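Re: the multi-chain job from yesterday

Posting the exact lines I submitted so nobody has to dig through the queue logs.
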Amino acid sequence: KAGVTQTPRYLIKTRGQQVTLSCSPISGHRSVSWYQQTPGQGLQFLFEYFSETQRNKGNFPGRFSGRQFSNSRSEMNVSTLELGDSALYLCASSTQGARTNEKLFFGSGTQLSVL
Amino acid sequence: DQQVKQNSPSLSVQEGRISILNCDYTNSMFDYFLWYKKYPAEGPTFLISISSIKDKNEDGRFTVFLNKSAKHLSLHIVPSQPGDSAVYFCAASGPIGSGAGSYQLTFGKGTKLSVIP
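And the result, structure tokens for all chains:
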């Protein structure tokens, strides 16, 4: 069974641009969550999608958005990029989401650098 | 407001000795706790978990202890091996999300474990 696939692996953008990251979950997984990892901040929750609906959202500005397609693939978009958006963006999938006793399966992430 | 705290950014341990990684949480709504391990350039991978109704869970060399009254959990690795060198994230799950009845997994900032041969 293929794991969680994130594309692209690396991305370099300049301030003010926008970026779209893609995540293909494990087959059969309907929940996709996105996390931002920066040095010293750990993994911060962005949002979770389940069956094409945003089910939960973290404390990030509206510049960060996402969507999920009928095949459970998900995209995350960041508009008007800022230097502070440079981070590793991780996608995780599971069958039902972050419920009791269910673990998440993470992709390798997209390393975004904003210059 | 950091709800899951890992106060030690790094830890060095000799090979063969015990590694103890600590984690504190503040939200009493958390009812499930997990540890993830992360190598550079890879996503986190699940290591071990514990439900709030238990105080100990063991899986091979890894044991997680939960002290609900102190809102504290720890991960013990015995014996430590060089391949255990990684960043360890403590995570807590509970119905604290903004969505109706939805769970949210909250992570600590991680502890970088170095096992010295």
